[in-house]
Amino acid sequence: MSRRIFGTPSRCRVPKILMNLPAFILRPSISERHAMAAQNQQGKILILATESCAYPGANAVGQAHISYPANTYILRVRAPVLFPERFYLDCFAKGIWGIIIMSCGVECPYEGAYEALAKRVDTIYVRMKERGLDIRRLRLTSICTVCTRAFVKEVQQMNELMAELGPPGTEPLSAQVAQAG
Q1: Assigned domain for 18 exists
Q2: CATH number of the domain that 148 lies in?
């Protein structure tokens, strides 16, 4: 006998340990469904955090139990300069509302990497304008290993901006005209 868990494909089988649980336990409550729907309304924010500076800073935020919006996804990277311009544009096309590049700044352990990244971001801004995307969706910032307040502030500011702008490609025409000038 097989029982289906809410939200799983019909071909998935329920583990035997769950077979004896009442169906209402396996199904999210109405309030849980509303919470999931509200979270889906928030835009996803991707954080590219360098492993030598920003990622330890993000880790310090977690260890200090400081809360920040749950719609953020932290990706630990060796150096953000490794990502091509196309990566950022593809992220916006695939549902990421905002990207924060948290790097070491000029203290990057890889010589010339930060300067190359800054030039790349400038090029991405031009391509974003061409596609009608608000350039505030992409932010380059420096976060150190102990900058917990700065980390949380950047995430909260981006989250507020995403609530204002909405999904990529839905920016008001007036904002696009103002950026072009």
Answers
A1: no
A2: 3.40.50
